[in-house]
Amino acid sequence: MYNFLALLSGLAISVMVSINGSLSQRLGVFWATVIVHAVGTVFALLVCKGKKAGIPGKIFHPLWIYAGGAVGVMTVVFNNFAYGHISMTSIIALGLLGQTAASLVIDSFGFFGMEKCPFRKSVFAGLAFSIIGIIIMLDHSVTTGVLAVIFSLFSGITVVLSRTINARLAQQIGEMQSSFVNHLAGLIVSAFTALLFAGITPAYTLDLSGTRPWMYMGGMLGVMAVYLCNIIVPALPAFRLTLLTFVAQVFTGIIIDLFFMNTYSKTTFTGGLIVAFAMALNLMMEKRQN
């Protein structure tokens, strides 16, 4: 069940990214991030009210368990700075590399209170094919944009950190409540950033004209993605979760491109197939070892 939920979260993330991308083209990245987190905050609060799941007034320790939303905003910022300097395929591949590295470290050492998962042969085989898939997805643009490469790697790392931190908070206050806190923290950080840029650049103002109602649904999907991750993270090794969500994101993205843009990236498709094989190999070897 958890493997299926991981795939479902990857699907939700891919659709969310596509919707948020459309909103960003209209409003700019920072204002779009504010809107996404505002919608997500309201939606998560309404769901909590509907489930009669209250938000605890008590502050739990350590305090860093409340930082998931702020770390998530960093992911958006890193991707924003990388965009346009290296190809989108390279950003995806390097993001996966960052996620893979962070996942293996968390699994091996049990950071953030997660269960330790020693580095086994099954992980090594999956890692080897994942790296091959990543290399295939890279192109010559990475040789000319060193800072963009670094930002893309860090975007992958922050994805894993954010979902792990949110899951720790969920263990204290509940999965949906954690999703609410995640979006509220992200709203505060992104609003401060957007207002800062608006102060520096007078032309950088919020203009909602030209947006469509469906462009505001990304925040709702974000709430569900965080909610699913809060359930999955304690149950699956971080490395397996990374592979499952990545495969779902890649192939959902390809379907979206085919239906709405009548195109797709052959390189991304090939790399995705290899990572999917790595995931299947990892699962089969884990079953044999268990």
Describe this structure in words.
This protein is globular. The protein contains 10 helices and no strands. It has one domain. It has helices at residues 2-27, 29-50, 68-82, 88-109, 121-137, 146-173, 175-200, 218-232, 238-261, 266-289. Helix 1 (2-27) crosses helix 2, helix 3 runs antiparallel to helix 6 (146-173) and helix 4 (88-109) packs across helix 6 (146-173). With 290 residues, the protein is an all-alpha fold. The model has no long low-confidence stretch (mean pLDDT 86). The chain crosses the membrane at residues 28-47, 59-78, 84-106, 118-138, 144-162, 183-204, 216-236, 243-261, 267-285. Keywords: Membrane, Transmembrane, Transmembrane helix. It comes from Faecalicatena orotica. It holds the Pfam family DMT_YdcZ. This is Transporter family-2 protein.
Give the assembly state of these chains: single chain
| Fraction of residues in β-strands | under 5%
Helix content estimate: over 70%
Low-confidence stretches: none
- Please tally the helical runs, counting DSSP H or I stretches of 4 or more residues: 10
Radius of gyration: 19 Å
Whole-number count of domains: 1
Mean pLDDT: 86
Structural class: mainly alpha
Overall geometry:
globular
Q: Distance between the terminal alpha carbons, to the nearest Å?
A: 18 Å
Largest sheet: none
Number of strands: 0
Element-by-element helix/strand order: HHHHHHHHHH
Pfam families: DMT_YdcZ
Transmembrane segments: 28-47, 59-78, 84-106, 118-138, 144-162, 183-204, 216-236, 243-261, 267-285
Keywords: Membrane, Transmembrane, Transmembrane helix
InterPro entries: YdcZ
